[in-house]
Amino acid sequence: MNRRQFLVSSALVSGTVLSGAKSKLRIGVTDWNLRMTGQVEAVGTAAQLGFEGVEVSLGRKPVDGKLPLDNDELIGKYVAAAKAQKIGLAGTCLDILHVNYLKNDKLGQKWVGDSIPITKKLNAKVVLLPFFGKGALETRAEQEYVGDALKEYAKEAEKAGILLGLEDTISAEDNVRILERVASRNLKVYYDVGNSTNNGFDVLKEIPWLGASRVCQFHLKDKGYLGEGSINFPEVMNRIMALGFTGFANLETGSPSNVIANDMKRNLDFIRKSMT
């Protein structure tokens, strides 16, 4: 941790925001929580609801041995939609890693490599690499295996200008061990405040400890509506913004009322108010 990160961390743990710290944080949404997984129409829906970006699923069922979004015509539709709606493609989710686990399936490694050029063509910057369920990182050996497996792909990501993001159920410290093992500026933590809270970690301490340089993106979620669960989102947003983080924080929220548009707008409005 450098001096700046130490000062930010110390100030935030004591509940103080550093004066002059500014954030260009943008709020996006996942296509799967819009219930529009892999649908170009998710771009327009996200824009209509007031989001600044949409996180795009790469798909779980291969088509002719390729990821579903590995299709130039479809990629072109996404790029055109984002331009027309004047929002960003916040990143991609390599959700096929829920099927081919990166910790023990060579095919999972192939998908990581394939995801990088797709994400670049979409003019996005981040690929989310998920580790959940049977694919969760449960041992130090699995963490080390994944780190070694990602060394080659991190180099490819560097050349393409793409960030690979680890989203998982382990601590910030364990994630940083993987980052240090890979030793690439293009492998970072995709920090999910809901997942970390549910696994017993203190997000208000982990976020400033990680610092902006080790996080590529955030997921914001809790049980039910934001603000009604156990997570103190005004303080979470305080920590994120005080870092000077300039990327996306994406809502990965459910729909308690089962009316997606209303619930997403409610959660978005709450987060925006929490940022003031």
TrEMBL record:
InterPro entries: IolE/XylAMocC-like, Xyl_isomerase-like_sf, Xyl_isomerase-like_TIM-brl. Keywords: Isomerase. SUPFAM superfamilies: Xylose isomerase-like (SSF51658). PANTHER family: HYDROXYPYRUVATE ISOMERASE (PTHR12110), INOSOSE DEHYDRATASE (PTHR12110:SF41). The keyword Amino-acid biosynthesis does not apply. Residues 46-273 form the Xylose isomerase-like TIM barrel domain. This is Sugar phosphate isomerase/epimerase. It comes from the Bacteria. One of its GO terms (molecular function) is isomerase activity. The keyword Isomerase applies.
